[in-house]
Design a protein that fits this description.
- The protein contains six helices and three strands; from the N terminus they run αβααββααα.
- It has a three-stranded antiparallel sheet with strand order 1-3-2.
- The chain folds into two domains: 69 residues, Orthogonal Bundle (Arc Repressor Mutant, subunit A), CATH 1.10.10.10; 36 residues, no CATH class.
- β2 and β3 form a beta hairpin.
- The two termini are 27 Å apart.
- α2 packs across α3 and α5 crosses α6.
- With 115 residues, it is an alpha+beta fold.
Length: 115
């Protein structure tokens, strides 16, 4: 399996953090901010990220980048891994431990354990 590209890693970081700045990405990836900007320009051109301006008083504004819907769709979802964990959790319940619990309560408990 090929290693993820820098742009794929940028998308994953933004997805995990909900949004991120050029400086935050540069520090995380040990790359120059100019390099990060070039990657973000391409990701924005491709419709995978968008940005909002963040002002911190005086001085230059900072930009916070987040994924677009298309950006979210391009990333792997790991559904099979999550399903496997849910099934493992379900089979780990002791007999009688689910007594008096509704299906919603059981599902919520399983999802909280996964989170």
């Amino acid at each position: 399996m090929p290693s993820p590209s820098t742009r794929d890693i940028i998308l994953e970081i933004i997805q995990n953090r909900k949004s991120e700045t050029v400086n935050g990405l540069a520090q995380e990836l040990s790359l120059a901010p100019a390099t990060i900007r070039r990657h973000l320009d391409i990701l924005q051109r491709d419709g995978l990220v968008t940005f909002t301006e963040v002002r911190h008083g005086t001085g230059r504004p900072e930009f916070s980048f987040s994924l677009t819907e298309r950006g979210h769709e391009t990333l792997p979802k790991h559904y099979s891994e999550m399903l496997g964990k849910l099934i493992s959790k379900l089979v780990s319940f002791e007999a009688g431990s689910l007594k008096d619990k509704s299906g919603d309560q059981i599902l919520n408990e399983m999802l909280q354990d996964l989170a």
